[in-house]
């Protein structure tokens, strides 16, 4: 059993109301892998530059970096952003694609053979090229407003080739032009996938299938320091759990939610790097407790 | 057993992306009463003008209007607003206080003796004047950004005299200047109440006490037509249920959520007026189903 993830490996410069980091390890594939590695062997696919010094971190909990390609003379993807006072808004101040500009993924045989594939947020043509190389029985994907605006047709094609779409609710609305979340999710299901997950930030996440709706709040925290990577960490917990428990969506939502809650407590990967499985289990159980509705049957 | 509610009885002019109404019955006390009347006898307290023609509607499901005061020569409170495309933003185009401008509540003995009191969103001095007249063992209140901005000290005094505060999360943050919802709720608890409910619109609601956190999503709907009164309808279901089931907060959240979900399906009071108890029970059970997290113990 293994999970292949393709996506960015990055350095982030981030400022939040609670502090800042000039250069910290980030990127969607990084955050995904650090979370998913609690549940399965993760194989990362993505390019890094000559400036990249964190290969050991990517290897945390046994993740495999054979397909992390170091590009001679290249610079690692760089993102610089700043968050507003309540952390619900953020501004991108600079993006340098670096080695991502010419990323043309060629996966190893082992990565192609993984049971599960996560296409993190990259250009939808590239997502499709990766999808075509893989034999995974369960494929999930993320995307973003940029691709909805500039490559919608390609994005819809990619959506038609996956089992699960994980987007935030604003993206779901933008993609479908439907203001109602349930209607928007149903429209995405009609494009092909069997599961849609709507990430709702501090409010949690909802899951929609043809015959099921499930909603889970975010884990309640008094300390939120940096939301960077929360969505990818959620995806790592969610997809990582599903890899070993196909179809167990509700529990997967709980693991994704628990993982994301740790991610936001400190900058970048800091908290999840030293996280233990026991700490995760505690929060998953607590999520069960704080959502339990004791109804007379 | 009975519930007294003091607050506005109004005519609303409303436009949403799905239609408009030039003049429909509204007001916080109205919406609260229509919801709470499923669970207990409701006594409405508030002024109306000579133009008011809906006293029979206020009497729905046995609600008592003895303390609804018709002011000679006065005009009923009037609100005119318009909602944005996703119904999450709204603009107030006109407010005419009318008879509310000189509202000086003097409650009947029966209203003073109710077990439960709901102080809907009115000036906090007036809320306190009502609170002082009542012998209720459980008092809940609402408020709004206007009073946080213009009468904060008085509002904090009122909060200190109630058991339960029901605000939306933006108001909780504004009141406490704390961006974090859990921290904001704890700060409100420190002002005196034992329960804080954070209304989160389309995302549902969260409940915070000294030793409990509970979160419930909104009931998933594909048809949302008019959110006007949703918060007061939620409060009516929540407080109405608690009146007969003291301390049963989680079930109360489910009833409030179910009631609010019907409210938004049509304009103003239209849907809740012809609602049945059976329809409510169905949605409460469904809320249990869509939030159930089946965890290994």
Q: Which structural class is indicated by helix and strand composition of chain A?
A: alpha/beta
Main β sheet profile of chain A:
9 strands, mixed
Low-confidence stretches of chain A: none
Largest interface: A-B, 41 and 41 residues
DSSP strand content of chain A? 25-35%
Q: What percent of residues of chain A adopt helix (DSSP H or I)?
A: 25-40%
The main sheet of chain A orders its strands as 5-4-1-8-9-10-11-12-13
Q: What is the distance, rounded to the nearest whole angstrom, between the alpha carbons of the first and last residues of chain A? A: 40 Å
- String of helices and strands of chain A: EEEHEHEEEHEHEHHEHHEEEHHHH
Kindly report the oligomeric state of this protein.
Answer: homodimer
Query: Rg of chain A from C-alpha positions?
Result: 18 Å
**Could you say what the CATH architecture of chain A is?**
3-Layer(aba) Sandwich
- Tally of discrete structural domains of chain A: 1
Please summarize what this structure is:
The structure is a homodimer of 297-residue chains. Chain A contains 12 helices and 13 strands. By secondary structure, chain A is α/β, with parallel strands linked by helices.
């Amino acid at each position: 059993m293994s999970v292949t993830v393709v996506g960015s490996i990055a350095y982030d410069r981030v400022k939040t109301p609670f502090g800042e980091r000039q250069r910290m390890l980030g990127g969607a594939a990084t955050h995904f892998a650090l979370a998913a590695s609690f549940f399965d062997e993760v194989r990362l696919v993505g390019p890094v530059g000559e400036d990249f010094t964190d290969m050991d971190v990517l290897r945390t909990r046994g993740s495999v970096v054979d397909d992390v390609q170091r590009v001679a003379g290249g610079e690692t993807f760089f993102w610089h952003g700043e968050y507003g006072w309540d952390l619900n808004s953020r501004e991108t101040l600079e993006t340098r694609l670096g080695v991502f500009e010419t990323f043309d993924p060629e996966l190893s045989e082992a990565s192609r053979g993984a049971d599960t594939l996560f296409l993190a947020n990259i250009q939808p043509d590239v997502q499709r090229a990766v999808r075509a190389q893989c034999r995974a029985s369960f494929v999930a994907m993320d995307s973003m407003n940029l691709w909805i605006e500039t490559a919608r047709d390609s994005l819809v094609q990619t959506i038609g080739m996956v089992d699960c779409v994980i987007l935030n609710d604003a993206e779901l609305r933008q993609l479908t032009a439907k203001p109602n979340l349930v209607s928007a999710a149903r429209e995405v299901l009609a494009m092909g996938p069997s599961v849609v997950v709507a990430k709702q930030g501090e409010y949690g996440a909802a899951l929609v299938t043809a015959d099921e709706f499930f909603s889970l709040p975010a884990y309640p925290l008094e300390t939120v320091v940096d939301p960077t990577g929360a969505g990818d960490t959620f995806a790592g917990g969610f997809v990582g759990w599903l890899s070993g428990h196909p179809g167990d969506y509700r529990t997967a939502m709980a693991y994704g939610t628990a993982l994301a809650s740790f991610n936001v407590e400190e900058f970048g990967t800091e908290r999840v790097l030293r996280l233990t499985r026991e700490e995760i289990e505690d929060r998953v159980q607590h999520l069960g407790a704080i959502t339990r509705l004791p109804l007379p049957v």
